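From: lab user (bench 3)
To: helpdesk
Subject: output format question, protein + zinc ion

Hello, I'm new to running complex predictions and I'm not sure whether the block I got back is the full result or only part of it. Here's what I submitted:
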Amino acid sequence: MTVILCCLFAMTAAAAQPNRHIVLIDPAHGGEDTGVVSDKLREKDLTMNLALLIRQEARKTADLQVQLTRNADRKMTTAERINAVGTVKSDCLISLHVNAGFGRKATGYEVYFPGFRQTVAGGSDSKAILGDMAKNKHLNDSVRLAQQIQSSLEKVFPRKGRGLRDAPSPLLDGLNVPGLVVEIGFATNPEDRKSLNEEETQRAVAQALVRGLQAYFQKGP
Ligand SMILES: [Zn+2]
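Helpdesk reply: Thanks, we reran it on our side. This is the complete output you should expect:
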């Protein structure tokens, strides 16, 4: 009897977690969509590894609960990733990518937040204006989140930041919560690739993202 009661109590405690912010981490690509492939690095695998490490690190905190858009190596549409936000009731989303191109010399990480241009063409009825205000709040929070993530990544990759960028993205534009795309480094750059393949770097990136998220939630919203 005692055993059963203990189990019940443990289950209830695990389900409630009232003070935790829910963060949806999106390991981009998956399945037949490999993303960037360069030497032995495959984007879909690296984003998955990072996502799992972020979830592990978040479990050590008292204030974050991490959910993933995919737990396995499978292809997902943008709409499925957006829908996952509602399913897990997440407070924000971070989509993880690995960069490629601009020659072998391009190196470093990039943080993208949603573009502001979409909110301009709202129409004039009050419902549309209220919708715009909500959207603007998410956009402002996205920028704030981007700043926190950038400053914590700066400690892992000093002077490797390529700046905060706003960019049209079907994923980010489809969200009704703050969201970011993080391009964690260049698979096409030999040094970035070597570093990203190291477990130590992956762990440091995961810890940095968790710290950035904690800082974001501690100062609002
Ligand atoms: Zn990608």
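A quick orientation on your result: The CA atoms of residues 93 and 112 lie 12 Å apart. Let us know if anything else is unclear.
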